[in-house]
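It is worth pausing here to work through a concrete case rather than discussing structure prediction in the abstract. The textbook approach is simple: state the sequence, then state the predicted structure, then interpret. We follow exactly that order.
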Amino acid sequence: MDKIIMTNLDEEIYHETLFNGLNVYIYKKENFLKKGAYFLTKYGSSTNEFVPINESKMVSFPKGIAHFLEHKLFESSDNEKTFEKFEKYGADVNAYTNHDVTNYYFSCVDNFDSCLEELINFVQAPYFTDENVEKEKGIINQEINMTDDNVNRYMYEEMFNMALHTNPNKYKTIGDKENVSKITKEELYRCYNTFYNPSNMILVVYGDIDVEKTLSLIKKNQEAKKFDQISDIKIKEYNEEESVRESYKEVKRNVAIPKVSICYKLKFPKLSGEAKYKEFLFLNLLLDTKFGAGTPFEKDLMKEDIIKTGLSMNYSYFDDTVLLSFSADTDKKDVFINKIEERLKDQNLDEELFLLDKKVIITNLVKMFENPAYVASMIYNNIIKEGIVINDAYSIYKNYTFDEFKDEFKNLNFDNKSILYVTKKEK
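Step two, the predicted structure:
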């Protein structure tokens, strides 16, 4: 077992790669009641074309199958429901699928060892039958209906579809009814056996726990199981264009006030490690210094009656593409779009606000270690996004200069954008 020292933070994370390739990370936090774990595979909804384990040809799988697989792993052959098993221990258990990963997790105060074994065991014991797969299709279709009725979620997902040409992040995590109808138990097993191999998975444990005892428990659990040895999984690569696929779209939905989303498509170099981590820092500071709470921008829009509620903004980063999105309720679409564009392209950057926002980010980094669950999520997010645990984030933040920020901003091109306008249906 080795230690990852978090520089300047007086914190450490234990790490070991097991004999079967499973990467285990343990963050011990004394005098903290809540304990838990995240058990995730590097397999999300954007991975639909790959070479399955023990096969030689690239195969295209139905969209939404990663999310479908997540649902099915909660079903066991003993007919005892997974949620009820954790309830007996006084624990919470759940899972989610996004574009990059499928993550299973629990939290508890007592019965930690039992919960940890239960988590590992149910994720590593798939039970798919023709009958339970068909039954699940109806459940997933109901979920699709519910998400289709959620206007904000529709807009968020549609912006991806409008901006991207070929990158599979353009598709909904949940899939659609046509693709869901094609899923079979055989395809679920092919996906499971490829991506749920320990060598493609991460287990992050946190809380006031005995590190050696916990690692011994995990090792003993894994030694009792057999898995195929796999090399790198071959996944189809995509060369995404710089332009957006669709620049403008207008739809009618059940909304009281019209809504507008603007999505700027930016191209970045393909990076990893600390270099990519700095790009996330840049994007966070860009949004904070241009549109954050330290600026009067949002309040001015409200005061001038340009937006009716708050301004929503976020970014998504994958491969070499960043999607920078802004949305609001407004009946002054063109004015809102122009205000966002003017603010975004304004070359007059505020150094004082930059330094203040940087201090806030550093403060939040330090505070994060007061909550072990946040640290655990930081660990797996680092691995998925940057490929390593970033152990010197404090210095990266501290040493990032205003001149670096200005130089990077000058290289951005905001000419490629998609606009989605949602108006209310006529009676």
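Step three, interpretation. The longest helix spans residues 130-149. The chain has a mean pLDDT of 95.
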